[in-house]
Amino acid sequence: AYKRFSELLPKEERGNVCSARVPKSQLLTLPELRANPFQHQICRVFSTSDNDDGSMSFEDFLDMLSVFSDSATCDIKSHYAFHIFDFDGDGILDRKDLEKLVNCLTGQGEESRLSDAEMEQLIQNILEESDIDKDGTINLPEFQHVVSRSPDFARYGGLQR
């Protein structure tokens, strides 16, 4: 992890790995993030930058790697997946978050984009399955409850590496 992180830094900063920050643009060159449809959200969630620029310290980088590791628990993976899917960061998955989530998964191209009716039906199905308190949103405990019933989430961590 130290070697991978330091290789993302400019040569002149490699001696100061513990205090350096890797910019988001460099993080997005990692093969694990380059093709991930949630790459910007992943950087946002794991970054502790005061500037909200998605840059990561070595500690942020370690946190990200540990969550995506095979040894992370389903609870930890689902906690971070929820925050990655919470695009506006308000602590709930509402219809706008779910629409963005679906668009990330299906792609933004015309040929793969769902019609308005298909999107509405899919969001309605997601809410029927997940919205236990019927408030029209999915909170973290509801998300974790649904995820706990999904063997694929536990096996693959919910997010592709």
TrEMBL record:
Q: Which domain of life is it from?
A: Eukaryota
Which sequence ranges are marked TM in the entry?
none
Question: Which keywords does the record carry?
Answer: Calcium, Magnesium, Metal-binding, Repeat
Q: Which InterPro entries match?
A: CIBP (IPR051433), EF-hand-dom_pair (IPR011992), EF_Hand_1_Ca_BS (IPR018247), EF_hand_dom (IPR002048)
Please name the SUPFAM superfamilies in this protein's record: EF-hand
Supply the SMART domains for this chain.
EFh
Segments forming domain EF-hand? 73-108, 118-153
Q: Does the keyword Heme apply?
A: no
Q: What GO MF terms are annotated? A: calcium ion binding; magnesium ion binding
Q: Per its UniProt record, what Pfam families does this chain match? A: EF-hand_7
What name appears for this protein in its UniProt entry?
CIB1 protein
Gene coding for it: Cib1
